[in-house]
């Protein structure tokens, strides 16, 4: 019981700390910050898989499964957004409509 409460406390503390840190980042740095932190998403996914692997009760398995789903979605979403951001920096090809310019 105490271990569960400690885990909830750590989770709440991590969530609050993460929110406070991210809210202090200037808007201009959000894109590079997210691109640079994609590896963290993979680590979260691995942690969720480990938690699911050692789950014993049905409740732990359900929570672990949800954690794996959310972690996988987070990792894939991070790479999709990064790919879209990189597309913005590629030079655009100007279409010529036959008029002299």
Summarize the structure.
With 101 residues, this protein is mainly alpha-helical. 75% of the residues lie in helices and 0% in strands.
What layout of secondary structure does this protein have?
Layout: H1 2-23, H2 30-36, H3 38-53, H4 58-88
Helix pairs in contact: 3-4
Describe this structure in words.
It is a single chain. The chain is mostly helical. The protein is built from 4 helices and no strands. It has a domain of 51 residues. It is elongated and about 70 Å long. The mean pLDDT is 80. The N and C termini lie far apart (75 Å).
Q: Name the beta content range.
A: under 5%
Q: What order do the helices and strands follow?
A: HHHH
| Low-confidence parts | none
Helical content stands at over 70%
- Total of DSSP H or I helical runs spanning 4+ residues: 4
Largest sheet: none
- Overall mean pLDDT stands at 80
Q: Quick one: overall form?
A: elongated
Number of DSSP E strands: 0
- Termini, distance in Å? 75 Å
Gyration radius, to the nearest Å? 20 Å
Class of secondary structure makeup:
mainly alpha
List keywords for this structure.
single chain, 101 residues, mainly alpha
